[in-house]
Structures are given as C-alpha cells and as structure tokens.
From TrEMBL:
This is FAD-linked oxidase. It comes from Bosea vaviloviae. Residues 44-223 form the FAD-binding PCMH-type domain. It holds the Pfam family FAD_binding_4. Gene3D superfamilies: 3.30.465.10, 3.30.70.2190, 3.30.70.2740, Uridine Diphospho-n-acetylenolpyruvylglucosamine Reductase, domain 2, Vanillyl-alcohol Oxidase, Chain A, domain 4. Keywords: FAD, Flavoprotein, Oxidoreductase. Belongs to the FAD-binding oxidoreductase/transferase type 4 family. One of its GO terms (biological process) is respiratory electron transport chain. Its cofactor is FAD. InterPro entries: FAD-bd_oxidored_4_C, FAD-bd_PCMH, FAD-bd_PCMH-like_sf, FAD-bd_PCMH_sub1, FAD-bd_PCMH_sub2, FAD-linked_Oxase-like_C, FAD-oxidored/transferase_4, Oxid_FAD_bind_N.
C-alpha cells in the first residue's frame, strides 16, 4: 500500500508547494536544470524528482514540511561547486535550491559584520565588504559561482587560512531550518557570546546533513592598506620548512598566504598551460608568500628586508617580488592555474588532504612513486596551502575518460598513505559521498558514532541529505 501511495503523495506534495510558493518555484521533469543534477565532483549526474527554489526560511520550512509529509528525501543546494558529492541528489529526491535567496541584508560598520542570505555568491560578499571599506577574507577559485551557504556547509578553507582561519572562524550567527522544518534564528553579531552551546558549529561543516543554512552573520576585517607578494624558488623541502618558520617569525600577523608548488605542478602550469613564470624552472620547490599590512611604506621595507635576509642565509635560490597589484595578480595566476587542469590534462581526479607540515614532501614523493608503480601510466602533480597543512594533488591516466579513471585504486593508495602519516582525507572540501568510505582513515569509531548520534537526534527520519558524510 505504501509503495502504491508514494507517487501520489509526492505529486500532492509538489502541487501543494506550487500553490504555496508559486509554480515558478517548483521545477519538475524536463524543466529541472542540469546544474542541479550534480556538483563539480566526478560523479555521474542524477536528476531529482523536483527542484524547489524558495526565497526565504519560511519557504524552506514549507518545503521541508511537504517533503516530510510525503516521505521524500531532500538535499540543500547552493552554487553546486562542491567536489565530493555533498549536494548531489538521487532520483526521487527533492533538491532545495537556495539560488533565489541572495542579497546583502545589512553591513554593520560598528560591529564589523555583514548579514547575508545563504545563496549569495562569495564574490558578491567580497565585493560588498570591499565597497564598505572592509575585507571578507575567505577566497576560493570558485568565488564567482560558489554560494556563501555552501561555503559554511563545507567549512571552506581557501588561500588565507594561515591568517584568518577557516570559514567557521568568520561566522558569528546563523539562521537554520532543521530537518523537521523548525526555523532556528540566531543572527548573533557578538564576538563574545557564551550563553550556552554555540549551536552554529553543529551546522558549519556538516554538509547539509543536520540543517539548511538560510542566513548568516559574517565577520569583517579591516581592508589591507598594503599587499606584498613574492614568488620564491627553493632547493628542497627543508628550505621550505625553514622559510615558513622564518615567515611566521619575521612577518608575524601580516603573513596571509604561503602556497607551495612542487616541480611537477610548476611544469604543467608554465609549459602546458602557458602561465608566465616569474622565476626560472629547474628548482626543487616554489613558494608564493603574501602579506597583508596597514602601512605600505613600512610593510614594503619590512618585506624586502626579510626576503634579503632569506637570500643571504641561503634559504632562497631565487625570488621575484611584486611591484604592483597587477604583478601580485600575475603571481597568483601561477597558483590559480590549477583551475585549467581539465583543459590540458583531460579527465583527472582531484584530492584534498591534510597533513602536518613536516610530512608533506615525504607524502608527495611516496605517493607519486606508489601511484606510478601501482597504476600503469598514472601521473600526478602536487601543490597546496602548506602554511595551514593542506596539500592538494590531482591524479590521472592519460587518454581515459573520467568514468574510466581508476579512482578506487588511486583512493586506496592515497588515503592509505594519509592514514599512515596521521593526516586527514579532507582538509577543506568535505566528505559527501566521494570520501565517505574513507572517513575511518581520519576519524575514530567513537567520533563517527557521535556523528551518527547527532544525525539521528536532529533527523530521526533520515530524510535530510541522507547517506552523506557518515
């Protein structure tokens, strides 16, 4: 009887939503956009039963209530730029897209906060902060497409974690719709607020499995009055570790980025992609160092003196210093060129892991060897935000389509080494479905059991983005 009634219940639920939210807010069948069928991960797209596009938390709550009444699983969606399948639907699910929930509601200059709707693109948030004389420091390559709610749901990292922290460090308050449709609003602007549990941290990083974030209060920071950047060449990884320590000591709180690129990465971006290299090839490693400061003259002199000291000590083999904003952007173009890997490498699999800094080069060397030996023809390149313990790599077998890439074999090699070295299978991209089989490599059984307890408590019917993370 349940199976016979289920299609009718689903149809009734969607008709109720059309009546309540407007027919244009509920897309079904051929009207479901391709973008809502998959994120940027290497999974095959899956068309949901419907895409519902509310404009506020009340609409999200109504959608959740309708889905629950019909027994329909539902998944929240933002910019769909995730890489682990966290926002990907299954057939028969309802996708709750926040794409119409956009806009800056308030910038409080006295509190240095911004209240924003969850579907707002990150770049819009950045630009609004800049226009108000502030900096919102979260920055990702997908800034023009990703939504701030999705950034929160995955606790995104990005390029400046070494100074400003992860996304959770940039959030003061949230509005969330729970799995039962309850709207919990705590748009807190206070930096200090110890009135009970800090509930926002339940939802930041939970990948839409515990609640649907609808509005957020973000911390803003003073806009830097100076930005200094240098692209450095070093002989080996010991020199990189030395440079990082000296940067922390010599540049202090001004240090905003410390990006490391291995020679295989350098070769791909400078020779195959064609990005102009500020320093010559043939070195052991390459590092992009950036600082944010408040006094251009003093900061410039300090940065130059620090670099000269590193050269005199033999830490650096070569270095180029940006003399303008355009040159700083050109330096970052070398690091951001990974966005073009698909055009020059063809189908490939991306990885995002966390390791203590001391182990990163050993991991890169061992992993490259193991992939080549264990998977005929497998190539790989390495790069990352080394200052905050985050290493990225991509692996591929040339000539194979994405569905033919031996991802299972790659995963076993890569995540096996991560576990051996005490790292994390996800530094900033989340778990979703792609990394779910490997969660135990980075979290203990008691930790995973506690995650399941929280999920059961908040979503006892297991309808909110089921099967993700745990």
């Amino acid at each position: 009887m349940h199976a016979l009634n289920q299609p009718r219940r689903a149809e009734d639920a969607l008709e109720d939503l059309k009546a309540g939210l407007g027919a244009h807010a509920v897309l079904t069948g051929a009207d479901v956009p391709a973008r809502n069928c998959n994120d940027w991960s290497a999974q095959l797209p899956r068309r949901p039963l419907a895409v519902v596009r509310p404009v506020d938390a009340t609409g999200v709550s109504q959608t959740v209530a309708a889905c629950r009444a019909a027994g329909l699983p539902f998944v929240p969606q933002g910019g769909m730029t995730g890489l682990c399948g966290g926002a990907t639907p299954e057939a028969g699910w309802v996708a709750i897209s926040l794409e119409r929930m956009t806009g800056i509601e308030e910038i409080d200059t006295a509190s240095a906060t911004m209240t924003v709707k969850a579907g707002t693109p990150l770049e819009v948030v950045q630009n609004a902060a800049d226009a108000a004389g502030f900096l919102f420091p979260l920055d990702l390559g997908s800034r023009g497409s990703c939504a701030i709610g999705g950034n929160l749901s995955t606790n995104a990292g990005g390029n400046r974690v070494i100074r400003y922290g992860m996304t959770r460090d940039l959030v003061l308050g949230l509005e969330v719709v729970l799995a039962d449709g309850t709207v919990v609003t705590n748009l807190n602007k206070l930096l200090k607020n110890n009135a009970g549990y800090d509930l926002k941290h339940l939802f930041i990083g939970s990948e839409g499995t515990l609640g649907i974030i609808t509005r957020v209060v973000l911390r803003l920071f003073p806009k830097p009055r100076s930005t200094m950047a240098a692209l450095c060449a070093l002989s080996d990884y010991d020199a990189v570790v030395t440079l990082l320590g000296e940067a922390r000591n010599g540049l202090g709180s001004n240090l905003s980025a410390f990006e490391v690129m291995w020679p295989d990465y350098w070769q791909v971006v400078t020779e195959r992609i064609g990005v102009r290299a500020p320093v010559g090839s043939g070195h052991g490693l390459y590092v992009l160092v950036e600082t944010h400061g408040s006094d251009e003259a003093a900061d410039g002199a300090r940065f130059q003196a620090w670099l000269e000291g590193m050269m005199e000590q033999g830490v650096l083999a070569d270095a180029a210093v940006a003399q303008s904003h355009a040159q700083t952007q050109a330096f970052w173009a070398v690091r951001d060129a990974c966005a073009e890997f698909g055009q020059v490498l063809g189908p490939h699999v991306s990885y995002d892991i966390g390791l203590v800094v001391a182990h990163m080069d050993a991991f890169a060397t061992r992993c490259k060897t193991a992939l080549s030996a264990g998977i005929p023809g497998c190539e790989s390149v390495y790069y990352g935000h080394i200052g905050d313990g985050n290493l990225h790599l991509v692996a591929w077998v040339p000539g194979l389509a994405i569905e033919q890439q031996p991802k299972a074999a790659m995963d076993a090699i890569i995540y096996g080494l991560v576990r051996e070295l005490g790292g994390s299978v996800s530094a900033e991209h989340g778990i979703g479905t792609m990394k779910k089989p490997w969660l135990g490599h980075a979290r203990s059984e008691p930790e995973i059991a506690l995650m399941r307890t929280l999920k059961t408590a908040l979503d006892p019917d297991n309808l909110l983005n089921p099967g993700k993370v745990i």
